[in-house]
Amino acid sequence: MEIAENILLTIATASTPLLIAALGELVVERSGVLNLGVEGMMVMGAVCGFVLTATTGSPWLGLIGAVFAAALFSLLFGFLTLSIATNQVASGLSLTLLGLGLSGLIGEKFVGIAGQKLPSLYIPGLSDIPLIGRLVFGQDPIFYISLALVVGVMWFLFRTRAGLTLRAIGDNHESAHALGIGVIRARYLAVLFGGACAGLAGAHLSLVYTPQWVENMTSGRGWIALALVVFASWRPWRVLAGAYLFGGVTIGQLHAQALGVGIPSQLLSALPYLATIAVLVIISRNRRLTLLNTPASLGRPFVPNR
């Protein structure tokens, strides 16, 4: 039972940053904007969170700083794609490359320094329940924030006027603009939210998952988060299922290596990324379902005076 509990805990920990980053990107894409800079924003959140924690001694300040740093970093993408209407794919890729390089520069002096871990919840009695105690009542705060985000994003997108407006912008920004809706403003807010979520996901990596700073510690998780949005067909509850599926694959390959399974370790390490490719191939075969759920204006620049 203890082994099962530890496996479930590690799966939840590995899945949390994927879930948060994917939820942020889902909201961005629902507005019609494709931001491929998730990896860059995540790694900026990770380094800023760790550096602030190391310098102030407070992981809570580090967490807040990570969210704000990544949100501000996302404004660069917003300016390029929304204000001056540059290509969204090229701008997103540039944001990732800039984030990876800049984070390495910021965190150069903090490599190898032991970090402070964000404290986990502990409720006497409840947290000591076998199997489910630590899993439900003994997690880190970001885990609970991730679950609240799933509910909040679902409620916002499908139960509020603002969410309906955002989805309308993503489906047809010209019609939304003709109705007097502030397309650029709404998309800026969506991009900021996506950046904040990416920063929170990055902070989870450097303050919870492995409380230290290692250059490029996101290790492609931002790209997996992007794939999760497509996997989930732009539905928040499917993002939750997909994040835990990919988290399970990640942890499963680590346990397989520890058990000495007769498969090359390099192949086992590649399993999460192979699973990502396999899922995208399977989804792409159902073109009708993909087109039905994809925001029609996704990736298309919008200039109000044209």
Describe the protein's architecture and organization.
The chain is an all-alpha fold and 306 residues long. It has a single domain, classed as ABC transporter involved in vitamin B12 uptake, BtuC, CATH 1.10.3470. The chain has 14 helices and no strands. α3 runs antiparallel to α4. The N and C termini lie far apart (63 Å). The model has no long low-confidence stretch (mean pLDDT 89).
Major beta sheet summary: none
Number of strands: 0
N-to-C order of helices and strands: HHHHHHHHHHHHHH
Overall pLDDT confidence: 89
Q: Rg to the nearest angstrom?
A: 19 Å
CA(first)-CA(last) distance: 63 Å
CATH class: Mainly Alpha
Strand content: under 5%
CATH architecture assignment name: Orthogonal Bundle
**General shape:** globular
Unreliable segments (pLDDT under 50, ≥5 consecutive)?
Answer: none
Give me the secondary-structure category: mainly alpha
- Compute the number of helices: 14
Helical proportion, percent range: over 70%
Which helices and strands, and how do they pair?
Blueprint: H1 2-30, H2 38-56, H3 59-83, H4 88-106, H5 133-137, H6 141-159, H7 161-171, H8 173-178, H9 183-209, H10 221-231, H11 236-258, H12 265-269, H13 271-285, H14 287-293
Helix pairs in contact: 1-6, 1-9, 1-10, 1-11, 2-3, 2-4, 2-9, 2-10, 3-4, 3-9, 6-7, 6-11, 10-11, 10-13, 11-13
